[in-house]
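Weekly structure sync, notes
Attendees: PL (lead), two postdocs, one rotation student
Agenda item 3: pending single-chain targets
PL asked that the sequence for the first pending target be pasted directly into the notes so everyone works from the same version. It is reproduced below exactly as submitted, 291 residues in total.
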Amino acid sequence: MNTMDLGGRFTFPKTSMTVNRMGYGAMQLAGPGVFGPPRDPGTAIKVLQEVIESGINHIDTSDFYGPYVTNELIRKALSPYPDGLVIVTKVGCFRGPDKSWNPALSAADLTKAIHENLQHLGLEALDVVNLRVGGLEGPTDTSIAEPFSVLADLQRQGLIRHLGLSNVSPAQLREAQAIAEVVCIQNMYNVAHREDDSFIEDLDRQGIAYVPFFPLGGFTPLQSSTLSDVAASLETTPMQVAQAWLLQRSPNILLIPGTSSLAHLRENIQAASLTLPPEAVAELDGIAAEN
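Predicted structure, written out during the meeting:
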């Protein structure tokens, strides 16, 4: 497959990692509520294998999906891993038996999480680790120096190759950059939720990847008459339009739409080759004002 069919390519700053901009998020491979095993483990394996066969070489995952479920599925489906595959994981949270999401930012928690990710993925070093902070409503401008310093120390030990941040503010990025290099930011962003517009532009100037989580709305799928109308005019689906809009929004945006369905995976991949005309982009840019 031509890499242009996957949105073109992006090279992470000061690294040898180059990925196709259309990636894959593994969260939905876990069971309902991102908890427990998938309903159909066989299909989950097939989805991961088709991800690689399609040319996608950037997978986003975490041990707290399941917990442990998605990483173990990735290892089962794909190990030994193909050359050039970049697996990005995140730490800073643990799942309670009641399916709750709980902060896990102590030095002991983070160190344990890194070793568990290595074990469950079957790796000697993790390509990229995102420190996940903030709250359910978005970033909180508290200091992240202490937990990020723990990851920087584990990086110096050779357990992590590169570091990123998730659910953070520009101020927190600057704080982290005083400690270690940051290669990517993963925040909530989509055609309807655009609080990070200026942040994305600043990251682009720095050559830092921006990876929107919930690019299609997450647990509450995007609903917009404008989005539906644009999709109808282009004879495509609203979700494909939403992804194409992100790829056209800025060259440093990488997509990680998640699915447990082969059909939806193929639909997502097709979105990477969709070019939106200027009038459609103008209409879509107005969606944020509706929300």
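Discussion points:
- The chain has a mean pLDDT of 95.
- The chain has one domain: 11-290.
Action: rotation student to compare against the earlier draft before next sync.
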